[in-house]
Amino acid sequence: MRDNSSDKRYRLGGTQPKRGVRRTATVAALILAVAAFTTPGTASADDSDFTTFPLAFGSSPATIAKGPDGNLWFTELTGNAIGRISPDGRITEFKAGLSALSGPDRIVAGPDGNLWFTEWFGNRIGRITPDGAVTEFSAGITPGASVFGIGAGADGNLWFTESTTNKVGRITPGGVVTEFDGGPNASAAPTDIVAGADGNMWFTQRFGGIGRITPQGAVTVFTEGITPGAGSVSIASGPDGNLWFTETFAGRIGRISTAGVVDEFTQGLSPASLPVNITNGPDGKLWFTEYTGGRVGTVDTAGRVTEVRSVGETTVPDGIVTGPDGNLWFVQAVASRIGRLHPPTH
């Protein structure tokens, strides 16, 4: 491993979860702690590069994705809705067809022109058309699996993770589910998943390493070079052909090649910032959110980290994506807002 950290204070430990644990205690406690101090609103007048769009308080938006229709689509974990926001900020929410207390979480554009999402509480996979028609799928998913991440594969299917059962699932656009064992660590808690440049799916493990699964279901887990207990929760396929991921508990940004070589980066990250979600930016960099830091940052393909700006210390920014307008769009989980950030030109 090549460790690019200049300060070992960032190296945090971690413990493995008991089976059946839903959200980590860290995240749950954080939301409860800051909720009382946050109120919805819009950016101040001098924030010309940053705009927010409020949702109903308590909606808890979780992630956001670029849709095939030129809009952004997002999930509301406790609002129990799927939302759509246009580049000019017009919001529409869809609840019809969603089971009560389903807990929509991760969302991604599918190969069929629809949006696909996970239901954290409902333990289902959902599909929503650009017109807002929802279909839920549960057949073939292990009960109590805690489906979490979802990504579109090069094989034309959707792939998802099961956090408490340590499995990776595949669902066809027609709704047929196949499950695969997620690796040797039964308590690894797989989280996010994305297609790599090598045609395989790559996934993070909150209490393990980085996993790779072939279209046929063969799994390899890489742990060498990854800080123990790193708490990886998000992964993106970078413009350099590598996979980039967050180490939320360890306070690092990680990079893994398709051959499994890992580098970690901390210089430029504030202590206890909890980097959480990561995505490709419009500028050839990776952009990420900081859960407790209330910031949005970038990392270039050489590993240079920049915390670009604060978006509200107690707003808890989470899912982030580049929109069709070239701006960065992200959710603020506790503030119950959607944020839009125009990337700096310098």
Q: How does this structure look, described?
A:
It is built from 1 helix and 29 strands. Residues 1-47 have low confidence and may be disordered. A hairpin with a 4-residue loop joins strand 12 and strand 13 (167-171). The longest helix has 11 residues, at 25-35. The protein has one domain: 7 Propeller (Methylamine Dehydrogenase, Chain H), CATH 2.130.10.10. With 346 residues, it is mainly β. InterPro entries: Vgb, WD40/YVTN_repeat-like_dom_sf. Keywords: Hydrolase, Signal. One of its GO terms (molecular function) is hydrolase activity.
Notable characteristics:
single chain; 346 residues; mainly beta; Methylamine Dehydrogenase, Chain H; 4-stranded antiparallel beta sheet; 1 helix; 29 strands; globular; disordered N terminus
Q: From the 3D coordinates, which CATH architecture would you assign?
A: 7 Propeller
Main β-sheet: number of strands, strand sense, barrel status?
A: 5 strands, mixed
Q: In whole angstroms, how far apart are the ends?
A: 32 Å
What is the domain tally? 1
Radius of gyration: 18 Å
DSSP helix fraction: under 10%
InterPro entries: Vgb, WD40/YVTN_repeat-like_dom_sf
Signal peptide: 1-45
Protein name: Putative antibiotic hydrolase
Keywords: Hydrolase, Signal
